[in-house]
Specification:
Strand order of the largest sheet: 7-6-1-8-9
Distance between the termini: 13 Å
Number of helices: 15
Largest sheet: 5 strands, mixed
Number of strands: 9
CATH architecture of the largest domain: 2-Layer Sandwich
CATH class of the largest domain: Alpha Beta
Radius of gyration: 23 Å
Order of helices and strands: HHHHEEEEEEEHEHHEHHHHHHHH
Number of domains: 3
Length: 346
């Protein structure tokens, strides 16, 4: 009988409409307690534990469909002939990890509240003027299982979207090793040609690091530091990245400080990703503001807070729900969660 109910879209003794409503409010609001209050205001009395269960099971079914490659697409989701921007970054969330030892006096299990970094990705399309296309809802998703997992997730989305048919593809991010060490591998696995793919360091992160370099010159005045940063910033925009790297090396030369070496290596390592004039001339973004904004909206405003600790698996489920909600793709997530293929998950 349960199998028959699932074929009708009824999971956990709830209709598809109620499941979707509870899960969407759990993604939108800042806590399950708020969801409980809103439901009560609408005449629906559900215990907080039930709300959590419905939300997590909803996300499980949707994730199972996504992992099976059954990602629903809209009529305007084809990337053929389009200009695609891809970015990824990490956030900060405190996870509840079990701690060895006896339980507390109240019988509760002790735990560590360590900070962990969930990885998030975004795929969006820009028009000929470099503005984000409103007709294409971005794809946002993330996980906690490390860089390899988020790149596998990214690869799955790009293959589903047919990234090989895109006109221009831009990978833009900050200078994190875990990102740029894996981008060339992803490009190779997807069979993309170098003529249409661009790798770019986020311009504003680069300028921030220039400020750190200038700050290492203790003998300079504040005015001299600002003047030096302004000059190097202009050189970056003009495409004279080699001169910037030389200027950075000149300042850092002869020093063994770890901080100085880190800043010097940052520009030397990413010299090939400083082609800002080339990318700007194509009307493609030179900053990774889209992923920075996604980190704030998806993770910081929901998973981050005073005395807030998450189990890893539950945090990942909320990340998926909130990602689809904030990107305007909730209806597609509903299709995945209510699919008949989710029978195995139920």
């Amino acid at each position: 009988m349960y199998a028959g109910l699932i074929l009708l879209g009824i999971h956990d003794r709830c209709s598809p409409g109620l499941n979707s409503m509870v899960s969407s409010w759990s993604a939108l609001l800042s806590s399950f307690e708020e969801v409980h209050q809103v439901l009560c205001d609408h005449g629906l009395t559900l215990d907080i534990k039930v709300i959590r269960k419905l939300t997590y099971r909803y996300a499980e079914r949707a994730r199972a469909e996504q992992q099976a490659g059954r990602i629903p697409l809209g009529d305007n989701d084809s990337l053929e002939g389009r200009r695609v921007v891809i970015s990824t970054d990490g956030g900060r969330t405190r996870l509840r990890e079990k701690k060895r030892g006896p339980k507390t006096k109240k019988g509760r299990t002790r735990f560590h509240g360590a900070w962990r970094e969930p990885k998030l990705l975004i795929i969006y399309v820009v028009d000929a003027n470099g503005k984000q296309e409103k007709s294409f809802a971005p794809f946002i998703d993330g996980c906690f299982n490390g860089p390899d997992s988020v790149f596998r997730l990214l690869k799955a989305y790009l293959e589903t979207l047919g990234i090989q048919k895109a006109d221009k593809i831009l990978f833009v991010a900050d200078g994190a090793h875990w990102i740029w060490n894996r981008v060339p591998i992803l490009i190779s696995e997807l069979g993309l040609t170098s003529e249409c793919v661009y790798e770019l360091l986020d311009f504003y992160h680069a300028v921030e690091h220039l400020g750190k370099v200038a700050g290492l010159r203790k003998s300079w005045s504040s005015k001299e530091r600002k003047s030096w940063v302004s000059k190097q910033r202009g050189l970056l925009l003009k495409g004279k990245s080699a001169e910037v790297v030389k200027a950075v090396q000149l300042i850092c030369r002869g020093r063994n400080s770890k901080a100085i070496k880190t800043e010097r290596d940052y520009f030397v390592r990413n010299e090939q990703r400083l082609a800002f004039p080339t990318v700007k001339a194509l009307n493609l973004p030179i900053g990774s503001g889209a992923i920075e904004s996604s980190i704030r909206r998806v993770i910081n405003l929901r998973l981050k807070g005073p005395c807030t600790f998450w189990y890893r698996e539950n945090a990942e489920k909320v990340i998926m729900l909130r990602s689809y909600y904030k990107s305007g793709r909730w209806n597609y997530l509903k299709q995945m969660a209510n699919s008949h293929n989710s029978l195995a998950v139920a």
